[in-house]
């Protein structure tokens, strides 16, 4: 579920050495599955461990994860990075904002997961986003752009050279993607 590098484990051991005996680590997600999701790490005193918590054992300490956060921390990684600017603990959780779907989930769920977890974070750098509206009977993913993408002169390139290539590579059963948005007026044009 969570990978913790040796450097991060050593950092946790050092931090825990100044805490009351029995204190461990808790990893959690605030607002899991939402665009505002944020991950956190805190001390976990022995009396705050719940029976439903996932217990991850490491060499010299344990990590506890509450049942609501657990699915969103799948494939998470914690590292302790030191560079010329100093040291910091980093937590990367690619599934915090959207729950990972099973490989055998319906195509629409798998495509939406890739859009939410891989495509939208890139579009968000430019203030944009894309939403999957449907997958047609003839295997086209119908998308609607929003935010900074609506009216952008590069949206056709983003659609065909970025999003479509990525989706077709991951989902060979798709024939392509179509844009539902009329970018000049910000209205729907596909239907």
From TrEMBL:
One of its GO terms (molecular function) is 4 iron, 4 sulfur cluster binding. It comes from the Bacteria. Its cofactor is [4Fe-4S] cluster. [4Fe-4S] cluster binds at residues 149, 152. GO terms for biological process: iron-sulfur cluster assembly; protein maturation. Binds 1 [4Fe-4S] cluster per subunit. The cluster is presumably bound at the interface of two monomers. It holds the Pfam family NifU. Residues 111-177 form the NIF system FeS cluster assembly NifU C-terminal domain. Residues 2-97 form the Core domain. Keywords: 4Fe-4S, Iron, Iron-sulfur, Metal-binding. Gene3D superfamilies: Fe-S cluster assembly (FSCA), HesB-like domain. SUPFAM superfamilies: Fe-S cluster assembly (FSCA) domain-like, HesB-like domain. PANTHER family: FE_S BIOGENESIS PROTEIN NFUA, IRON-SULFUR CLUSTER SCAFFOLD PROTEIN NFU-RELATED. Belongs to the NfuA family. Involved in iron-sulfur cluster biogenesis. Binds a 4Fe-4S cluster, can transfer this cluster to apoproteins, and thereby intervenes in the maturation of Fe/S proteins. Could also act as a scaffold/chaperone for damaged Fe/S proteins. Homodimer. This is Fe/S biogenesis protein NfuA.
